[in-house]
Amino acid sequence: MTSLKFIFRADSSNVGDWWCPPWRYFTFKPAVIGDILDPNFTVTDSDTLVVGGGGLGSDFFRPHLERIKKSEPKSSILWGAGVDVIAQRDAALQDNTYDLYGTYFDFFDEIGVRVFSNPQRFQYLPCASCMNNLLFKYRDVKPKSRVGIYNHKRLPLFNSNNTVDLAKLDNNGNDFEEKLKFLSNFEYIITNTYHGVFWATLLERKVICIPFKSGLFSFKHPPTYCFDGQISDEHFDKAIVHENVLEQSREVNVAYYNMVANKYNIV
């Protein structure tokens, strides 16, 4: 039986979680794939684990990470995981008084995180979803409209009681192309999701983020932030296109793949 195992949040109702693991994009030896929430997915001291991506650095996932730690795998590799040290809006909006990393991943042998800061504690590794070739297709699409709303499915920015009349989509489901097609339609994307910011940035759209957790402050190429939810002309004026982020993100992922492939003999 193979000793290579991949663990991620296998949630087909969350498009970002579903498309973030590196096994979707890179060639590896035969492996077993498991959900981090599955208590029956066993890890032994002879296993090599590749964990991530997704927002696994949180108090919700800590018990499951501790279970992995206690299993003492032979090798453990973290790939593009995110951190939400603070998930409460008011606390997360405080003026950078918290640690963006926490202690969730300290036991891994290789730690690649989608968290960017200056200084950088762990290796910066953008979400592996940047390796999906559909991003090139939709980056080349000319926007047809000015503003679109990309919601977190549990925390919609605008609902039926709001007078804002703009096109909306959320991160529910696993249809990656549906999300990219929507994001590419607009010059500006207003969002409160990690992948809404990330994918729209890769598509070279101008992004305005209404944050509600600390992980939304960890982008290497940050969006324009609106802290009170009241979008104004000033936010549109400040929003910019970050060019060539898709190529840069893919280069970092390829380099990480080559490093762990050679070091841990997993290809």
Which key terms come to mind for this protein?
12 strands, 267 residues, alpha/beta, 21% strand, 7-stranded parallel β-sheet, 8 helices, 2 domains, globular, 5-stranded parallel β-sheet
Share of helical residues: 25-40%
**Uncertain segments of ≥5 residues (pLDDT<50)?**
none
- Rg value: 18 Å
CA(first)-CA(last) distance:
16 Å
Largest sheet: 7 strands, parallel
Element pattern in H and E: EHEEEHEHEEHEEHEHEEHH
List the helices and strands and how they pair.
Layout lengths: L3 E5 L6 H4 L13 E4 L12 E4 L2 E4 L4 H9 L4 E9 L5 H4 L17 E4 L9 E2 L9 H6 L5 E7 L15 E4 L5 H9 L1 E6 L2 H9 L3 E4 L14 E2 L7 H6 L6 H20 L3
Parallel strand pairs: 1-2, 1-3, 3-5, 4-5, 5-6, 6-7, 8-9, 8-10, 10-11, 11-12
Model description:
There is one protein chain. With 267 residues, the protein is an alpha/beta fold. The chain has 2 domains: 4-131 and 248-264; 134-243, no CATH class. The protein is built from 8 helices and 12 strands. The chain has helices at residues 15-18, 62-70, 89-92, 134-139, 176-184, 194-202, 233-238, 245-264; strands spanning 4-8, 32-35, 48-51, 54-57, 75-83, 110-113, 123-124, 145-151, 167-170, 186-191, 206-209, 224-225. Strands 1, 2, 3, 4, 5, 6 and 7 form a 7-stranded parallel sheet that branches. Strands 9-8-10-11-12 form a 5-stranded parallel sheet. The longest helix is centred in the C-terminal third of the chain and has 20 residues, at 245-264. The protein is globular, with a radius of gyration of 18 Å.
